[in-house]
Amino acid sequence: MKGWRRKPEVHQVTDAKPSLSADIHKREISYLIKMGIRTICLILAVVVPVPWPYRLLFIAGAVFLPYIAVIGANERGNPGPPPTFQSPEANQSEIPLHRREIGS
């Protein structure tokens, strides 16, 4: 008689997304680290007497790291996989587009 009952869905703590404040804190730390590296690159490009190929490398780091830092800071946590037809969120009552017939 137990075979006809559905098992309750069990949620685990590891399935939960991190809190919004934890996500923001992680992105802030990442941004500050990248901008710190950019500052070091800028100082090395201006102050330290190094050959031109190294100086160009430091200048490129100082120019492109702000873009990379901002893109990384604006990126939220992993959204997860897209819903499939097997997921409970999918609308199972709708006929798939490849199965529709003319006049229906």
From TrEMBL:
Residues 78-104 are annotated as: Disordered. The chain crosses the membrane at residues 31-50, 56-73. Pfam families: DUF3099. Keywords: Membrane, Transmembrane, Transmembrane helix. It comes from the Bacteria. This is DUF3099 domain-containing protein.
